[in-house]
């Protein structure tokens, strides 16, 4: 296991030898990781690796069987609940949002940590909700109940609820669910804007091509950290290929052509398919040559230069 984060640098969230069981099933086995402040860390790995479980443990949503989680250098359990809710915002996977609530009301739930008990929303609350709904392009249906929205529209409202908290640390589990490629590109631009403002973003993604746009990848397999490092590091790419059993290949895309954000190279994940080598042995090969991948199949953000 390789970890590239500077332990002495600013850390937003840290897991120290964290172990978690779900029922009788051990899911995380002594996970240790430090997530840097003001950057986007994406947690990736095969199905059943423990990605969502780790994110929930970092959010304080699951009991630990061992180890500890630290938030900004302080044990998570030592934080008062309201202070923690203002510091860490959460977007879960397939979350119920309250079908009878309007999009405005759902986004306003993000302001609860800032409001007194049974208190009415303040002008600051209303400004925060409007800004969040506009950022996620959900403003036009603010008066519509969630039950009348599509899956993608609903996801954008839930994302607005997350943003309305105005927390310095945002945790998102599968935030791209139900979003079409243009809105995935919008989400990517939004995340980049958040980190430029100094906010910390931690996500779980299955979309590996989008994950490669992150600052850091935290690669899990079988409940253990296999690698942590910059998303553009060849060592990270090799680790990614290994945890997926060499069924994928990470290849450069348009290397040397700088994008809108000044990044000099792009990377794409290609699936491999079995081929028969001489002698009848089975080998694996990428389905496309490096640099020849049609990126609109996986990365609308790259194709439109909006990433």
Automatic annotation (TrEMBL):
Q: Which residues form a coiled coil?
A: none
| Residues covered by the ABC transporter domain | 13-247
PROSITE patterns, A to Z: ABC_TRANSPORTER_1, ABC_TRANSPORTER_2
Which classification does the entry list for the species?
Bacteria, Pseudomonadati, Pseudomonadota, Betaproteobacteria, Burkholderiales
Q: Does the keyword ATP-binding apply?
A: yes
In the record, what terms sit under GO molecular function? ATP binding; ATP hydrolysis activity
Q: What does this protein do?
A: Part of the ABC transporter complex HmuTUV involved in hemin import. Responsible for energy coupling to the transport system.
What protein is this chain from? Answer: Putative siderophore transport system ATP-binding protein YusV
Q: Which Pfam families match?
A: ABC_tran (PF00005)
- Keyword DNA damage appears in the UniProt entry: no
Key words of the record: ATP-binding, Cell membrane, Membrane, Nucleotide-binding, Translocase, Transport
């Amino acid at each position: 296991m390789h970890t590239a984060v500077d332990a002495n640098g600013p850390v937003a969230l840290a897991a120290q030898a964290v172990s978690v069981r779900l029922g009788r099933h051990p899911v995380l086995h002594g996970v240790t990781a430090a997530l840097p402040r003001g950057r986007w860390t994406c947690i990736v790995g095969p199905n059943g690796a423990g990605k969502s479980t780790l994110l929930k443990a970092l959010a304080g949503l699951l009991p630990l069987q061992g180890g500890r989680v630290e938030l900004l250098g302080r044990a998570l359990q030592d934080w008062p609940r309201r202070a923690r809710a203002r510091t860490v915002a959460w977007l879960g996977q397939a979350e119920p949002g309250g079908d009878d609530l309007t999009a405005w009301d759902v986004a306003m739930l993000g302001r609860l940590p800032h409001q007194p008990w049974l208190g009415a929303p303040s002008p600051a609350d209303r400004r925060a909700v409007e800004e969040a709904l506009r950022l996620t392009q959900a403003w036009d249906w603010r008066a519509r109940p969630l039950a009348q929205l599509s899956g993608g529209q609903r996801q954008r409202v839930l994302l607005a609820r997350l943003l309305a908290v105005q927390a310095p640390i945002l945790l998102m589990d599968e935030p791209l669910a139900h979003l079409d490629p243009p809105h995935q590109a919008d989400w990517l631009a939004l995340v980049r804007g958040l980190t430029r403002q100094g906010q910390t973003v931690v996500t779980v993604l299955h979309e590996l091509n989008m994950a490669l746009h992150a600052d850091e990848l935290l690669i899990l397999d079988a409940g253990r950290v296999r690698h942590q490092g910059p998303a553009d590091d060849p060592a990270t790419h090799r680790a990614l290929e290994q945890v997926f059993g060499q069924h994928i290949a990470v290849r450069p895309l348009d290397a040397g052509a700088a994008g809108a954000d000044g990044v000099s190279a792009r990377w794409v994940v290609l699936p491999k398919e079995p081929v028969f080598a001489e002698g009848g042995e089975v080998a694996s090969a990428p389905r496309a040559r490096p640099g020849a991948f049609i990126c609109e199949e996986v990365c609308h953000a790259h194709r439109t230069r909006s990433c």
